[in-house]
Amino acid sequence: MIKVMIVDDERNIREGIIHLINWRELGCEVVHSCSSGSTALAYMESNTVDIVVTDIKMPNMDGIELSKKISEKYPAKVIILTAYSDFALAKQAIKYNVSDFIVKNEFIEELPLAINKTIDMLVKERDTRESGRAEGLGSFDYVKVFQRLIMTGQISDKEILEGKLDENNYVLCACDITYFDKKEGNQDMPELLNNILRISLKDCSYNIIPVSDSYLIIPVSYKKNSTIGLNTIVDYFNNIIIMIEEFMRIDIKLGISSEVKDVKQLKNAYEEARQALAKITTRGTAIKVYTSQPLPGAITAFDVDRYTNILLELTFDEENQEAPGKLKEGFEMLADTGCTVEQCQLYMLMICSSIIHKAVRYHLDVDQDFNEMEKEVYEKIQNAKTIFRLIHIGKDTIERVRALCIGKQNFKNELVNKVEECIRKHYREELNLQYICNELYLNNSYVSRAYRKLTGYTVTEKIAMYRVGKAKELLSGTSMKIYEIAQAVGFKDAPYFTNIFMKYTGKSPTDFRQGQ
């Protein structure tokens, strides 16, 4: 018999729990009931108790403090009785290995379910201690089987039969964790996360498969004939995120796969979970469910060469601070497409590599090994699981390069400065390479070749980019007509201005103005 103790300062509640629950049918015996936490601890000093059912609010020592002291000294499991208004307080008790929370006015229906689940935990832990196996695995190593299945797709019919794996449906969660407060957040994190999952994933089985310190895979299974489905699992994980935000000082992002009815398809579910996780672009805790369809209005193509050129121009423009925002904007658009995480990684690698290589071309006299920087950035990109992390890596690369380059004596040589000064002064006129060379009294072939070698752009491209930049200012800050703006920045033909504007911004002048 499982030995149960009831702790509540209200005698009517204690009596109701004792007499309205069929404890013998549950395989339990209520061995003691009392009105305070201190009395409960005094009883446990000389008596064995397997499960403690306690109210959360009691005088002198509340249920949370009682849970803490039990977790420090005894192997007993604790079930908390709470009210809806106490839920935020109840969540704090998770760190003390609380098994479940029961709302008081629903205890007749809910408490037997929680008792059964807690008994299962006790039995498994006892089997673990006796057999010496890892916690929760029993005689069948689910973690090992799932890990191999997810990574390789390999599983035998014998394993499916032995683990009864064909009796369940599955949803897979890919979990990326960033620690904000390592001193607090890293303390017993796996145990805390396991407690939250155990309480939140009601009527489900789950395993935690660590891939790295910050990346976990969580297969969740439930009986095929149950009422649980994908929507239920998503609701559970939304609650998990709320609980994590309450007291765990970590940033956690979850990618959820679609429902899998055949365990052999778990490898596909893992790919879905990874892709869902990758599409998260926001800071803080977040959850995203896999969808195979791009969002309405999403871009269908991504011109990485044009986009990289724009970012290069912004990164190495001393007077401009738009590069990080432009990078974030582009990758947030990518998140709404069917682009895979591997493709996003490749795009970011190309962009960061181009920025670093352009810095190298300036031959800056700085104490920086750019090869080492590129290697470090490459490793970070390869390990990134979300677009949010990719954006962070890209923005950090831009900021590091600008900090090394901006203001340095040889950041731009004299020729580049003179060409760009001429563009700034004369962009409203019929400006071209020959005009600039005449102003500088230099050979146009030399200027063209040298400027492109030093900047990566032709003089004509730079003129167009500068004019487009001025046009953006007028579109945002004035009510001038499109053709008036075209003339004001040096374009005599409005349709040609529109084509050039779209080339460098991806939008028409009208769409750009409406988006401001």
CATH architecture of the largest domain: 2-Layer Sandwich
Q: What would CATH call the class of the largest domain?
A: Alpha Beta
Rg, rounded, reads: 31 Å
Shape designation: elongated
Major sheet attributes: 6 strands, mixed
| CATH fold assignment of the largest domain | Alpha-Beta Plaits
Explain the overall architecture.
With 516 residues, the protein is α/β, with parallel strands linked by helices. It has helices at residues 11-20, 37-44, 63-73, 87-91, 107-131, 142-152, 157-162, 182-185, 189-200, 230-247, 266-278, 304-315, 323-335, 341-361, 370-383, 387-405, 414-426, 433-440, 444-455, 459-477, 482-488, 494-505, 509-514; strands at residues 2-7, 28-34, 51-55, 77-82, 98-103, 168-179, 205-206, 209-210, 215-223, 250-256, 286-289. The protein has four domains: 2-131, Response regulator (Rossmann fold), CATH 3.40.50.2300; 142-289, Reverse transcriptase/Diguanylate cyclase domain (Alpha-Beta Plaits, 2-Layer Sandwich); 304-405; 414-514, Homeodomain-like (Arc Repressor Mutant, subunit A, Orthogonal Bundle). It contains 23 helices and eleven strands. Strands 6, 7, 8, 9, 10 and 11 form a six-stranded mixed beta sheet that branches. It has a five-stranded parallel beta sheet with strand order 2-1-3-4-5, with helices on both faces. Helix 13 packs antiparallel against helix 16. The chain starts with a strand and ends with a helix. Keywords: Coiled coil, Cytoplasm, DNA-binding, Phosphoprotein, Transcription, Transcription regulation, Two-component regulatory system. GO terms for molecular function: DNA-binding transcription factor activity; sequence-specific DNA binding. It is found in: Cytoplasm.
